[in-house]
Specification:
two-stranded antiparallel ribbon
Length: 328
Amino acid sequence: MRLTGELEETAVAGWYRSARFRPDPARRESGGLVQRLNWQTRTRYYETLVDQLRATGGTTDGLARDELAAAAGQRRPSTLYYLVSPRSPGSLAGALVAASPRRLYEKQRGERVLDLLVAETKVWSYWPHREGWLGALDDLTVADRWLAAASLIRVVADWAMCSRSLATAASFAPPVAAVEDLLRLADGGQPGGAAAGDRPGAGGPAVPAVPGADRAGGREAPPAARRPAPPVDPGLAAVTALLTTVVRTAVESSGIGPAFVLAAVHPSLTSLVSVAGPGTEKITAEVADVMTQLEHQLPRLAADDRVRIADELAPRLRAVLTLLAEGR
């Protein structure tokens, strides 16, 4: 499978397709798909949130759900909760709980419906950048995971620079689509990666304990009945931290480009996605090309020049020949 084929099958990509389109065999001209009726409602909420964040500099503090719903042209604020609640099958959070083997969504204490909306809006805003990235990978037939990951960093930085207020929201959290893509690249295409085995059995997100109350709102649950904290996924934590740094650097630094952001996180990215070494055929071809040039140029040089070249190259050539002999 081509590299972009793997990336098109992520949990977030599946959510985006299903949230936007529904099957309709009668619509052959559109590939058997038709846009869902509530997609327009979703995008109105996304657009309204972006406008609000521009006015507040990227903070949702003081932003009420009722205000947002009214600005989006919705009479009932409950519509927003229905769209983004993790209990809704059409929400990003619900899709991640159901489809992702990684803990890409964890219910947080004090989580608000606006927090869930921010996460979805970041994915929606980032999606055209992602589609352009995947198109470029396909056009250039990129198969190297390191090159794909490096270009992903630049794309995320470009998105953050184009959407500064939205990128700033939620403490510079990156779009979860980019997090999952980088996880796939770092894991060698395995959806769960090495850390997936650490995950407990399937089920909904961990529910944080509330001091002084059990899940029913009564007395505090005895220690033995408390839900243990979910294990930390080191791969997910490292990828999220790296991309958060990318977003923060892109937003807070002025006069720089995506290439500078990539250089700033290059060591961290290298520790996550291994750089593939050159193949033996490529090494042989490049050395043979250099040797051919030497054989052509050396007879034309003066004797003194050949002596100087010999003094410099002969020890290195002997060292290379020694290394090659050790492999026999």
